[in-house]
Amino acid sequence: MPYIYVTGGASSGKSSYALKYLQNRKNVTFIATGIATDPEMLGRINAHREQRPDCWETIEEPTNLIAAVKNASPENRGIIIDCLTFWTANLIFHRKMKRDEILEYAASTAEFLRSADRSALVITNELGMGIVPASQESRRFRKIAGEVNQIFAEKSEAAYLIVSGIPLKLK
Question: What is the second-level CATH architecture of the domain 3-169?
Fold first, then answer.
């Protein structure tokens, strides 16, 4: 089943949109890509956990989305992947992947999701609408994340931009 791509700025309501989209379903797997690297991030992760229904399965997988989807309970027909931005950062900083490797991996992952037998919502951050980052490393990350987003957006069935909690359909 094709997936839905959900993007927007930080704290724009992307995760809330995904939770509302599948709120009446019990058979959902939430795939979390964030890693608790400091107390603030741990707090954010815990807050996200508390927002999910207890009956939903959670898989914490920072880099291998294909394995996470394959390892989800077979009865869970809905998947939420939150988020590609952390996933991309994890590929760069934890798996030490280079740009071309990441883009190839993103393309194969998006293609897998597009042909999977489950419906999915893929969440990401739109990083290209803010100021130009001051450091070379931050500019490099923003460029790669933007290219990853383009790959996933292109292969999606539908795409939404969330602005101040309001979904705007892009395709």
Answer: 3-Layer(aba) Sandwich (3.40)
Please spell the DSSP secondary structure of 45-94, one letter per residue: HHHHHHHS-TTSEEEE-SS-HHHHHHHS-TT--EEEEE-HHHHHHHHHHT
- Residue 94 among the catalytic residues: no
Per residue in 18-74, pLDDT (tens digit) is 999 998 888 999 999 988 888 888 788 788 888 888 899 999 999 999 999 999 999
Which one of the listed residues 25, 48, 99, 143 is annotated catalytic? 48
What is the rounded distance in angstroms from the CA atom of residue 24 to the CA atom of residue 29?
13
**What is residue 134's three-state secondary structure?**
coil
CA 60 to chain centre: 12
pTM: 0.93
DSSP 3-24: EEEEEESTTSSHHHHHHHHTTT
Calculate the average pLDDT of the chain: 93
The tokens describing 13, both together, are 């309501």
